[in-house]
Amino acid sequence: MTDTRHLYTDLAWLWPMWGDAAAEYAHYCQHVVGLIRRHSRIPAATLLDIGCGGGKNVLNLARAFHVTGLDLSPAMLAQATALNPGCTFVQGDMRTFGLDRTFDAVLMDDAISHMHCRADFVAAFRSASAHLNPGGVLVATPDVTSETFQQNRTTATRATRDGLDVVFVENVYDPDPTDEQCETTILCLIRDRGRLRIQTDHWTMGIFALDTWREVLRDAGFEVHEGRYIAGDDEYTVFACVKTG
Ligand SMILES: C[S@@+](CC[C@H](N)C(=O)[O-])C[C@H]1O[C@@H](n2cnc3c(N)ncnc32)[C@H](O)[C@@H]1O
After folding, report:
1. How far apart are CA 178 and CA 187, in angstroms?
2. What's the rounded Cα separation, in Å, for the pair 99 and 130?
3. Residue 128: its H or E element
4. CA 72 – ligand 1 centroid, Å
5. Which residues line ligand 1 (CB under 6 A)?
6. Distance 194 CA to ligand 1 centre (A)
């Protein structure tokens, strides 16, 4: 099955329906701001959010920093701009982008899961490092690692708005636990005033062991600090990485 990207292209308009941007992402962003303040060796005024998507993290981080968001998808960037008219957004690929400026802090959140091979994973962190000022902090939060992966985990979320009723089912599956990839399959049931449209997405995602994260981050020029972030029943490893040199 080949990869599709409906959720980041023709279905990007669904993005604002998921949760309350300010409330849902605020807790995590407070944690990110705290880590940056604790570990940074320079005054942190600017932040680059890599893979900013619909800009929900940006909305919260903009309370503490001048934020620039980078994403591959113009449709997601349009959502991010609508939510954050005062911030700057740039279209680019996290593996290869080159901006003519650097930042005091960088956030690499859930978009890193789209790096589905080691070479892309390494390239993304090298690009992040190249855009961070020495002494600045990169915060990276793996959605899932080899240690936390749950085979066939399936979740369903429902959202309603303006006559639209959307059910979003997400399934993760690893057909070969010896490699560094897994599959995410998404099923969207979109009912517009009762009329049903069914849309599916299928993505190959990266899944790396914590030791691989540590090694790749160190090799990209970071001093790596590790902590935990707890959200409800879920617990995540968070890396706060200081750029040395
Ligand atoms: C789940 S969304 C991120 C949501 C975001 N954390 C927020 O605050 O709204 C994942 C994003 O990763 C982006 N993405 C995937 N591959 C990318 C790449 N190679 N470079 C940059 N962005 C990428 C997608 O376009 C998508 O917008």
Report:
1. 27
2. 9
3. helix 118-130
4. 7
5. 8, 51-57, 71-73, 76, 93-95, 109-111, 114
6. 30
Cα dist from 5 to 102, 159, 205, whole Å: 30, 20, 12
Sign of the Cα torsion 169, 235, 73, 161 reads positive
Task: Enter the pTM of the model.
Answer: 0.96
How far is the C-alpha of 140 from the C-alpha of 36, rounded, in Å? 11
DSSP 82-108: HH-TTSEEEE--TTT---S--EEEEEE
Our measurement of the distance from residue 98's CA atom to the centroid of its chain's CA atoms, rounded to an integer in Å, reads 19
pLDDT tens sequence across 67-108: 999 999 999 999 999 999 999 999 999 999 999 999 999 999
Q: Which amino acid is at 60?
A: N
Gap from CA of 43 to ligand 1 centroid (Å): 27
Report the nearest atom of ligand 1 relative to the CA of 94.
Answer: 20
Q: Each residue of 108-135: pLDDT tens digit?
A: 999 999 999 999 999 999 999 999 999 9
If DSSP codes are grouped into helix, strand and coil, which group holds residue 185? strand
Q: Indicate if the alpha-carbon torsion angle 28, 29, 30, 31 is positive or negative.
A: positive
**Contacting residues for 133 by C-beta, under 8 A, at least 6 apart:** 42, 102, 103, 104, 243
